[in-house]
Amino acid sequence: MTTGIETRDAGDRQGPAPTGGPEAASVPSTSPIEDAVGLARDLHAALSGVLLGTPVAVTTAVVAALSGSHLLIEDVPGVGKTVLARALATALGAELSRVQGHPDLLPSDITGVTVFAPDTGKWEFRPGPVFANVVLLDEMNRTPPRTQSALLESMEEQQVSVDGESWPLPRPHLVIGTQNPLGQVGTYPLAESQLDRFGLSTSIGYPDADVETRLVLHNGGRYALDTMVPVSDTAQWERAIASTAQVHVVREVAEYAVALIRATRSTGSVRLGASPRAAISLLRCAQAHAVLWARPYVTPGDVQAVAVACLSHRLIAEGTAGEGALLVGRIIADTPAPPT
Fold it and tell me: Among 1.10.287.500, 2.60.120.10, 2.60.40.10, 1.10.8.80, what is the CATH number of 248-340?
C-alpha cells in the first residue's frame, strides 16, 4: 500500500471527492480558517504543477505544512523527493536549507558550532543549516545515529542546545527527511524515537507513461521550479498553522482517533504501537485535512484519510517493510467510527 493521504472528501469516506478536488469546496467568508483555506488551495495547485500525477504526495505535503508536521519521504532514487521538498519551500516563501546525508556528517554540521572569535575575544555561536524554516535532510539514513540524534531536540522542541546554551529555531520550522527504503548498504536505520517525530510519511512512486513523457520534455518536475513563484510567506504560513489548530474537534472524533491509536498497541503483529505523540499528531493532521476541504470541523473521515500517513512509519511490525500501512488499513476497517 502506498503511504500518504487520500484525496477524496473525508466527509463521506465512501463518497467521491467534490468535482475539481479540494479547491472546489467552499467555506463561509466569516470563518476564521478562511485564510488557511486559501493558502491550502494555492499550495495544492502550486505543488501539483511541479509534482505531476502525484496527488497523494502533494496532499500529504500540504497537510504537513498546515499542521506544522515534519515529513518523511521514503522512495527509490530519482522519483522527485528532493523536488517536492524544494517546491514546498518555494511555494511557502520560506528559506530552504539542504543537508546531504553521508557517513561522515557530524552533529555540528547540522546544529552549528561555537567558535572563538579573535577579533572580539569571545566565543560566538555559528548557526548550522538547521536554522531555516524548511530543512531538507536528503538520504537521512546515510547519516550515523549520533548525527541523526542531533535532530531530535530541534524536531520536538524547535530549538538546539550547543555547549550548554539553547538557541531557538525560526518559526515555522519544518524538517523534511528523505530515504531510500530499499538501499541497505552504508545506511543506518532511523531509530524509533526519530521516526516518531515525523508527523507524516509518504512516497511518490514511478509516474505513468504520460507523466514521464511530459517530464522528459521538460514539463513539470525540476524544470517547473525555475518559474515557480511563492503563494505565501512565512508570516502567512505561521498564521495558517495557528488557524488550523483551531479547527473544531468534537469529543467523539477525538475518542475515535484515540481508539485507532490504542488499537495499534494491541494488534498481535505489532511489536511497537503508536505513541501519545502520534495521537496528537493524528488529530493535528486531521484538522489540516479538514482545512484542505474548507471544513471548519473534523470528521471521522478526516482522521481515516490521514491515518496511514501518520501512523504507518511509526509502527514496528512483524514482517516485511510496508506492513505498517496494511496494518493501519485493517485497524481502520475494524474500528467502529462515530456517525458524521
Answer: 1.10.8.80
